[in-house]
Design a protein that fits this description.
This protein is of the alpha+beta class and 391 residues long. The chain is 45% helix and 21% strand. It has three domains: 1-165, Reverse transcriptase/Diguanylate cyclase domain (Alpha-Beta Plaits); 184-228, no CATH class; 244-379, 2-Layer Sandwich (Dna Ligase, domain 1). The structure holds a DNA duplex (18 and 18 nucleotides).
DNA sequence: TCTGGGGTCCTAGGACCC
DNA sequence: TCTGGGGTCCTAGGACCC
């Protein structure tokens, strides 16, 4: 007999708002938004009282205020949310090692081998009750035979939901839902699918002309169709979140930047942050991307792949400056971003510095001096010693 | 109504290699 | 002299998610 997997998807409800309410219970019970203090800009999220008025995440503050004049808005506090996020994952990790954080506020758990004779629903209820009573964190739990159905299940009832979605429920519970409820189908794809008569998840699951679909869904055609039919064989991967694909920092400048010099200053501070964060994660990057958004919302980017990995501010900024000059004419700038990818753990970087030193010795004493100075400035003696010991 | 900031993944075209 | 087919890597840009 086939053994079914038991996958939980645990989702923190209105997470940022819930954190604010947990810290300051006086905020509870009335409409609350997280966002900027000015009328410009958009809400990051809103609590459920605010959502009753139609207020939602990514909504411009001006419109949210129009829908709900008594809306209270508090500024984002990522340090707070990261703390609660850690509390959340710590709590869940007592139940299984097969835990995969999916974002700051949701996790997949493969409970197949860790149920210990409990009914999944009993366990889910306990998680929900304890996260609320101990930490004032409201969660919805979805339970299914694969990650996709678990995620869809947790979505079906919020807040404080516990929902089981079996394969045999798919036709009744999933197929009537609009197609954009499928994770990965967004506002650009929906009109295309409408064009060929696909409005619901069921329409996609039973669509007969696969080649027609391929035009819009590309290589993802089969994965999407499988999901629409409730099939998903993805394994839970506890290490996935540790493997960063990219690290970047971007900032929107209200009122725009007009002077070339202030743009360079802004890029310098973005690059500095990126360099710091790479070092925090003990990572070094080989590809560097500079992003720019003009005042009329045109996005541009330039990237370069370096010969060696680096997380060194001066090496990064040299390239950032060069890419930016290629990217920018004379127009005002709305957003600037610096991002790094093709990351490797820092041990790779230490080797790189050794090679750098060797070639510097041969050719250019000045380069060696510069490298050594910057190593001392940015990593301290420990790292330098480690690099030497490696050889 | 007018669009934040952190990301992931995909695509298409070109360069280059065998 | 003309030029196949497969693969990999790089770059720019876009869609999407939380």
């Amino acid at each position: 007999m086939q053994k079914y997997r038991v996958i939980f998807h645990v989702d923190l409800n209105a997470f940022f708002a819930s954190c604010e309410e947990a810290r300051d219970p006086s905020l509870r019970g009335r409409p609350l938004g997280i966002g900027p203090s000015s009328e410009r800009g958009i809400l990051t999220t809103a609590n459920y009282e605010a959502r009753k008025y139609g207020v939602n995440s990514a909504m411009p503050v001006s419109e949210a205020k129009r829908l709900c004049p008594e809306l209270k808005i508090v500024p984002v506090d990522f340090a707070l949310y990261n703390e609660y996020s850690e509390t959340f994952f710590d709590y869940l990790s007592q139940y299984t090692e097969q835990l995969e954080p999916a974002s700051i506020d949701e996790a997949y758990l493969d409970m197949t081998d860790d149920l210990e004779d409990q009914h999944p629903k009993t366990l889910a209820k306990r998680m929900q009750d304890e996260l609320w009573s101990r930490h004032r964190l409201p969660v919805s739990v979805g339970i299914g035979p694969n990650p996709f159905l678990a995620k869809m299940a947790s979505d079906l009832k919020k807040p404080f939901g516990i929902t089981i979605l079996r394969k045999r429920d798919v036709q009744e519970k999933l197929w009537p839902l609009p197609i954009d409820r499928l994770h990965g189908i967004g506002s650009k794809t929906v009109p295309n699918l409408r064009l060929i008569g696909i409005d619901t998840i069921g329409d996609l699951a039973t669509f007969p002309e696969v080649e027609k679909l391929r035009k819009f869904l590309g290589n993802q055609t089969e994965p999407f169709m499988n999901k629409a039919r409730g099939e998903d064989d993805r394994r839970i991967d506890p290490a996935r979140k540790d493997r960063h694909q990219s690290i970047g920092k971007s900032k929107t400048y209200e009122g725009f930047l007009h002077e070339h010099d202030e743009m360079l200053e802004a890029l310098k501070s973005l690059t500095r942050r990126v360099s710091e964060r790479l070092k925090e994660h003990e990572l070094a990057a080989r590809t560097l991307t500079v992003q720019l958004r003009t005042s009329d919302y045109e996005n541009r980017s330039r990237s370069v792949t370096l010969e060696q990995h680096t997380n060194h501010f001066y090496e990064l900024f040299e390239e950032v400056e060069r890419l930016f000059e290629e990217l920018h004419g004379t127009e005002a700038v709305h957003l600037l971003g610096v991002s790094t990818s093709k990351l490797t753990s820092q041990s790779g970087l230490v080797r790189q510095l050794d090679i750098f030193e060797a070639s510097a010795e041969e050719k250019d004493e000045g380069t060696l001096e510069r490298v050594l100075k910057s190593i001392n400035r940015h990593y301290g003696k420990d790292v330098l010693k480690r690099g030497v010991n490696d050889e």
